[in-house]
Protein backbone atom coordinates (compact mmCIF):
# COMPACT_ATOMS: atom_id res chain seq x y z
CA UNK A 1 0.00 0.00 0.00
CA UNK A 2 1.29 3.43 -0.96
CA UNK A 3 0.17 6.31 1.23
CA UNK A 4 0.59 9.79 -0.27
CA UNK A 5 0.98 12.59 2.27
CA UNK A 6 -0.30 15.68 0.49
CA UNK A 7 -2.13 13.68 -2.19
CA UNK A 8 -4.04 16.69 -3.55
CA UNK A 9 -0.87 18.45 -4.73
CA UNK A 10 -0.75 18.81 -8.51
CA UNK A 11 2.18 16.44 -8.97
CA UNK A 12 1.20 14.13 -6.13
CA UNK A 13 -2.34 13.71 -7.48
CA UNK A 14 -1.03 12.81 -10.94
CA UNK A 15 1.55 10.39 -9.49
CA UNK A 16 -1.06 8.70 -7.28
CA UNK A 17 -3.32 8.22 -10.31
CA UNK A 18 -0.48 6.65 -12.27
CA UNK A 19 0.47 4.34 -9.40
CA UNK A 20 -3.17 3.23 -9.11
CA UNK A 21 -3.36 2.58 -12.86
CA UNK A 22 -0.16 0.52 -12.58
CA UNK A 23 -2.00 -1.77 -10.16
CA UNK A 24 -0.74 -0.55 -6.79
CA UNK A 25 -2.98 0.01 -3.79
CA UNK A 26 -3.05 3.76 -3.24
CA UNK A 27 -4.53 6.08 -0.65
CA UNK A 28 -3.55 9.47 0.66
CA UNK A 29 -4.20 12.31 3.02
CA UNK A 30 -4.48 16.05 2.72
CA UNK A 31 -6.30 19.08 4.03
CA UNK A 32 -10.06 18.75 4.36
CA UNK A 33 -10.75 21.30 1.63
CA UNK A 34 -11.80 20.73 -1.98
CA UNK A 35 -9.00 21.05 -4.56
CA UNK A 36 -9.50 20.61 -8.31
CA UNK A 37 -6.74 17.99 -8.29
CA UNK A 38 -8.87 15.55 -6.29
CA UNK A 39 -11.31 14.98 -9.16
CA UNK A 40 -8.99 12.49 -10.90
CA UNK A 41 -8.37 10.74 -7.59
CA UNK A 42 -12.09 10.39 -6.94
CA UNK A 43 -12.70 9.05 -10.45
CA UNK A 44 -10.25 6.22 -9.68
CA UNK A 45 -11.78 5.64 -6.23
CA UNK A 46 -8.56 6.57 -4.46
CA UNK A 47 -9.29 7.13 -0.79
CA UNK A 48 -8.55 10.68 0.41
CA UNK A 49 -8.29 10.99 4.20
CA UNK A 50 -7.78 13.96 6.50
CA UNK A 51 -4.33 14.08 8.09
CA UNK A 52 -4.21 11.68 11.04
CA UNK A 53 -1.32 9.63 12.43
CA UNK A 54 -3.65 6.62 12.48
CA UNK A 55 -3.57 6.63 8.66
CA UNK A 56 -0.04 5.23 8.89
CA UNK A 57 0.36 1.49 9.44
CA UNK A 58 2.89 -1.30 9.05
CA UNK A 59 4.08 -2.33 5.59
CA UNK A 60 3.06 0.97 3.98
CA UNK A 61 5.31 2.82 1.60
CA UNK A 62 5.05 6.55 2.06
CA UNK A 63 5.27 9.21 -0.63
CA UNK A 64 5.42 12.69 0.87
CA UNK A 65 4.91 16.04 -0.74
CA UNK A 66 7.77 18.53 -0.68
CA UNK A 67 6.24 20.75 2.01
CA UNK A 68 5.76 18.01 4.59
CA UNK A 69 8.29 16.89 7.20
CA UNK A 70 8.27 15.41 10.70
CA UNK A 71 8.18 18.88 12.26
CA UNK A 72 4.98 19.98 10.53
CA UNK A 73 3.11 16.74 9.83
CA UNK A 74 2.19 14.01 12.31
CA UNK A 75 1.94 11.35 9.58
CA UNK A 76 5.51 11.95 8.43
CA UNK A 77 6.65 11.85 12.05
CA UNK A 78 4.88 8.52 12.68
CA UNK A 79 6.20 7.04 9.42
CA UNK A 80 9.77 7.99 10.40
CA UNK A 81 9.30 6.60 13.92
CA UNK A 82 7.87 3.37 12.41
CA UNK A 83 10.91 3.06 10.15
CA UNK A 84 8.75 2.83 7.00
CA UNK A 85 10.07 3.35 3.48
CA UNK A 86 9.59 7.06 2.74
CA UNK A 87 10.02 8.62 -0.68
CA UNK A 88 9.75 12.24 -1.67
CA UNK A 89 7.60 13.02 -4.69
CA UNK A 90 10.75 13.58 -6.76
CA UNK A 91 12.30 10.27 -5.69
CA UNK A 92 9.14 8.33 -6.61
CA UNK A 93 8.86 10.04 -10.00
CA UNK A 94 12.52 9.19 -10.55
CA UNK A 95 11.93 5.51 -9.72
CA UNK A 96 8.94 5.43 -12.04
CA UNK A 97 10.67 7.08 -14.97
CA UNK A 98 13.63 4.69 -14.74
CA UNK A 99 11.29 2.03 -16.15
CA UNK A 100 10.24 4.00 -19.23
CA UNK A 101 11.65 6.07 -22.04
CA UNK A 102 11.09 9.51 -20.59
CA UNK A 103 10.66 12.97 -22.01
CA UNK A 104 10.80 15.90 -19.59
CA UNK A 105 9.56 19.40 -20.29
CA UNK A 106 11.59 21.87 -18.24
CA UNK A 107 11.64 25.61 -17.73
CA UNK A 108 10.15 28.52 -15.88
CA UNK A 109 6.91 29.17 -17.80
CA UNK A 110 4.64 27.11 -20.05
CA UNK A 111 5.58 23.62 -18.88
CA UNK A 112 2.03 22.46 -18.17
CA UNK A 113 0.72 23.76 -21.50
CA UNK A 114 3.64 22.32 -23.48
CA UNK A 115 3.43 18.96 -21.68
CA UNK A 116 -0.34 18.82 -22.27
CA UNK A 117 0.05 19.49 -25.99
CA UNK A 118 2.93 17.03 -26.28
CA UNK A 119 0.96 14.33 -24.43
CA UNK A 120 -2.10 14.97 -26.62
CA UNK A 121 -0.13 14.57 -29.85
CA UNK A 122 1.80 11.48 -28.72
CA UNK A 123 -1.21 9.83 -27.10
CA UNK A 124 -3.21 10.24 -30.31
CA UNK A 125 -0.41 8.92 -32.54
CA UNK A 126 1.83 6.31 -30.92
CA UNK A 127 0.34 6.31 -27.41
CA UNK A 128 2.04 7.50 -24.24
CA UNK A 129 1.80 7.86 -20.51
CA UNK A 130 2.01 11.24 -18.87
CA UNK A 131 2.28 13.13 -15.62
CA UNK A 132 1.26 16.76 -16.01
CA UNK A 133 1.62 19.48 -13.38
CA UNK A 134 -2.12 20.17 -13.43
CA UNK A 135 -2.92 17.02 -11.46
CA UNK A 136 -3.36 14.79 -14.50
CA UNK A 137 -1.73 11.37 -14.61
CA UNK A 138 -2.42 8.68 -17.17
CA UNK A 139 -1.08 5.23 -18.02
CA UNK A 140 -1.93 3.87 -21.46
CA UNK A 141 -0.65 0.34 -21.10
CA UNK A 142 2.21 -0.19 -18.71
CA UNK A 143 3.30 -3.47 -20.28
CA UNK A 144 3.89 -1.99 -23.73
CA UNK A 145 4.90 1.50 -22.80
CA UNK A 146 6.73 3.79 -25.19
CA UNK A 147 6.87 7.19 -23.53
CA UNK A 148 6.50 8.85 -20.19
CA UNK A 149 6.16 12.61 -20.18
CA UNK A 150 6.49 14.88 -17.17
CA UNK A 151 7.11 18.54 -16.53
CA UNK A 152 9.92 19.70 -14.27
CA UNK A 153 10.46 23.10 -12.66
CA UNK A 154 13.98 24.30 -12.06
CA UNK A 155 14.40 27.19 -9.67
Report a brief summary of the structure:
The chain is α/β, with parallel strands linked by helices and 155 residues long.
Structural key phrases:
single chain, 155 residues, alpha/beta, five-stranded parallel sheet, four-stranded mixed sheet, 5 helices, 9 strands, 31% helix, globular
Amino-to-carboxy terminus distance: 32 Å
| Range of helix content | 25-40%
Category by helix and strand content: alpha/beta
Question: Using only CA atoms, what is the Rg?
Answer: 15 Å
Describe the structure.
This protein has 155 residues and is of the alpha/beta class. Helices cover 31% and strands 26% of the residues. The protein is built from five helices and nine strands. The strands form two sheets. A five-stranded parallel beta sheet has the order 3-2-1-4-5, with helices on both faces. Helix 3 (74-81) links the parallel strand 4 (61-64) and strand 5. The longest helix is centred in the last third of the chain and has 13 residues, at 111-123. It is globular. The N and C termini lie far apart (32 Å). The model has no long low-confidence stretch (mean pLDDT 88).
Topology:
Blueprint: E1 2-5, H1 10-21, E2 26-30, H2 38-43, E3 47-50, E4 61-64, H3 74-81, E5 85-88, H4 89-97, E6 102-107, H5 111-123, E7 129-132, E8 136-138, E9 148-153
